[in-house]
């Protein structure tokens, strides 16, 4: 039950739920299609700007967006009620890169091709400011929702994050750059001496990470960590905590 959740997790799930409710409004601002459609016509839509903000924010906050804001995150948490099995990351994590690299290459090609004639239109294909503002657009909306849900149901915890998400690579690259530049950032820190090896952290991780193993070796940095804090709040020994500092 939600009432039994730690306060931080109640806040996180509330924010995710609100984000999911707002998805009919925000969908185009996160859309990989709208960004390409605009770029082909020499238009910089809002979504590439959002992706750039995600990259920059990840320098300091990693994939916090994924764990606390992304509407698809809530959808997949709902899907976990059907299939909460950990996903096989070795078989899935590469898929999103296989999608992202050609997509991003195409986006950059058309944006650079436009050159000085490139114009910014944050409302491209979203003239009213609301992504789903007429009945026909609900087909696209429900198709996206269905896709994220189905993949998560058939593959396991947050399966869509591992396979089809076009936003995750921006934040992974941003996090890696932040670490390379030794920038301070929000991250997990563990004290292995406090660990009782109960495995609750690994069981709770929505991204199917071996958190217990990470604690044991003292290496809590992982590109798939979404900083949701479930391992922090679920540890009765307080062996894991949030810190803001350098790697």
Which short descriptors sum up this protein?
247 residues; mainly alpha; two-stranded antiparallel ribbon; 6% strand; 2 domains; 56% helix; 4 strands; Alpha-Beta Plaits
Helix-strand category: mainly alpha
Contiguous uncertain segments of 5+ residues: none
What spatial form do the alpha-carbon principal axes imply? globular
Helix content: 55-70%
Computed over alpha carbons, the radius of gyration is 19 Å
Strand content: 5-15%
Count of discrete domains = 2
> Helices and strands, in N-to-C order?
HHHEHHHHEHHHEHHHE
> Mean pLDDT, as a whole number?
97
Total beta-strand segments: 4
Number of helical segments with 4 or more residues: 13
Order of strands in the sheet with the most strands? Answer: 1-2
